[in-house]
Amino acid sequence: MLGNGVISMITRRRSCQVYESRPLGCLLYPVVYSIDEGVMVDELCSEKYTVSKHELKVKEKIVLKYLKKVTSEVTLYFRRIELDDDNNR
After folding, report:
1. 10 within some domain
2. In this structure, is residue 44 part of a structural domain?
3. What is the mean pLDDT of each run of 10 residues along the chain (89 residues)?
4. Which of 56, 59, 72, 80 is a good FRET partner for 42, with 20 to 30 A between their CA atoms?
């Protein structure tokens, strides 16, 4: 595990152990979502200059799709909690 809480999937030979089935976050990185700036390339990534405009556009669509999905699921979850609270009063 790295100091920032990220689990390292990199072997001693500098290759990813789970490349074929890597998580979505790994697939999209260094494209990230910033509340202030929206979809962007992570400025802290040493490989940020390797992301083409086309790759950014493709990954932006994926990020926004999943952001919308997560937002709707969180909203639904909190509505259920409110309903449960109302029913338990």
Report:
1. no
2. yes
3. 49 61 85 94 92 96 94 90 76
4. 72
